[in-house]
């Protein structure tokens, strides 16, 4: 009679949780099958021998550095090196390539985030992963790994006006992917200063702020005078002719007199959120 190998209690719990997520519609068949691929299952149910336990670890063997698929080379070691997995930038990629990249990241047990997605790419991801979180305003998609870390750190995203909301939503989805607590304070631009003053107590609860503004880009400097945390300012392309597609806001923010303001590229909600998330999580770790 063949010897039966039973998974450890920890591994069995992991497998049970994956299957429960599938039944609840929170994960897709592709994601679960990727995580429970033959090699993954063998690693789960086959405990290391005493000789393996005694052997010194080989850092180069701990994480596969990259995965080659048609059309892309995925950096699977980025989470180990930098704290977070590789992010998929949508423009220029066929929809099926975005789906394949997600599949490979999930197989490696990593969370997925894609930004600047087209309608076709969003549709492809929805069909492949019904449980994916799709934000059409932000043009993003994300899937949390079952191994995702607990929430830590608090970042507040602030917009000057409703027209800045798509950039702010990209920042919000990035912070959720990074496992940060996120708050949104919308439409408190400098044209109505009483709106900002009413939210100062809320702004002071954050470990870091992402402030999104177009037009003349004054909001980050004004907010900075009320808080003691770092502000990552995002100039947006919102505005009339002499805003020059966000260049006016960018130059204004770069010339801020406030010492706690750092500036990212035009419409770069992802970049500001990534920096703010790193600061917030480090503070709370």
Overall description:
This protein has 2 domains: 9-48 and 68-143, no CATH class; 154-284, Rossmann fold. 42% of the residues lie in helices and 16% in strands. The protein has helices at 9-23, 29-35, 38-45, 50-54, 59-62, 78-82, 95-107, 119-128, 165-177, 193-198, 200-203, 219-224, 247-254, 269-284, and strands at 66-69, 72-75, 88-89, 112-115, 133-135, 140-143, 154-159, 181-185, 208-213, 231-235, 261-263. The strands form 3 sheets. It has a 5-stranded parallel sheet. Strands 3-4-6-5 form a 4-stranded mixed sheet, sandwiched between helices. Helix 12 links the parallel strand 9 (208-213) and strand 10. Helix 2 (29-35) packs across helix 7. The termini are far apart.
List keywords for this structure.
single chain, 285 residues, alpha/beta, Rossmann fold, 2 domains, four-stranded mixed sheet, 14 helices, disordered N terminus
The level 1 CATH classification of the largest domain is Alpha Beta
Total helices: the number is 14
| Percent of residues in β-strands | 15-25%
Number of domains: 2
Mean pLDDT: 86
The shape, in one word, is globular
The helicity comes to 40-55%
Spatial arrangement of strands, main beta sheet: 8-7-9-10-11
Order of helices and strands: HHHHHEEHEHEHEEEHEHHEHEHEH
The major β-sheet equals: 5 strands, parallel
Q: Output the structural class.
A: alpha/beta
Would you report the number of β strands? Answer: 11
Gyration radius from CA atoms, angstroms: 22 Å
Based on the coordinates given, report the CATH architecture of the largest domain: 3-Layer(aba) Sandwich
| CATH overall fold name of the largest domain | Rossmann fold
Q: How far apart are the first and last residues' alpha carbons, in Å?
A: 50 Å
Task: List segments where confidence is low: pLDDT < 50 over at least 5 consecutive residues.
Answer: 1-5, 37-62
């Amino acid at each position: 009679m063949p010897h039966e190998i039973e998974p450890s209690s920890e591994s069995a719990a992991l497998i049970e949780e994956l299957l429960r997520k599938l039944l609840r519609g929170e994960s897709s068949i592709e994601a679960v099958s990727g995580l429970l691929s033959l090699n993954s299952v063998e690693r789960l149910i086959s405990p290391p021998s005493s000789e393996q336990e005694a052997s010194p670890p080989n850092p180069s063997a701990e994480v596969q550095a990259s995965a080659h698929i048609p059309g892309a080379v995925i950096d699977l070691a980025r989470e180990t090196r930098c704290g977070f997995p590789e992010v998929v930038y949508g423009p220029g990629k066929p929809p099926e390539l975005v789906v394949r990249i997600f599949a490979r990241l999930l197989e490696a047990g990593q969370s997925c985030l894609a930004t600047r997605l087209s309608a076709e790419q969003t549709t492809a991801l929805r069909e492949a992963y019904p449980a994916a979180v799709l934000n059409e305003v932000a043009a993003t998609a994300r899937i949390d790994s079952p191994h995702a870390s607990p929430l830590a750190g608090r970042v507040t995203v602030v917009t000057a006006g409703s027209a800045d909301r798509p950039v702010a939503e990209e920042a919000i989805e990035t912070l959720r992917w990074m496992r940060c607590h996120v708050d949104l304070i919308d439409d408190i631009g400098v044209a109505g200063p009483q709106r900002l003053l009413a939210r100062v107590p809320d702004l002071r609860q954050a470990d870091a702020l992402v402030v999104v503004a177009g037009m003349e880009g004054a909001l980050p400097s004004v907010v900075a005078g009320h808080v003691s945390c770092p502000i990552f300012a995002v100039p947006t392309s919102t505005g009339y002719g002499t805003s020059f597609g966000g260049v006016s806001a960018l130059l204004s923010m770069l010339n801020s007199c406030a010492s706690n303001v750092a500036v990212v590229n035009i419409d770069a909600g992802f970049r500001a959120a990534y920096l703010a998330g790193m600061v917030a999580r480090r503070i709370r770790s």
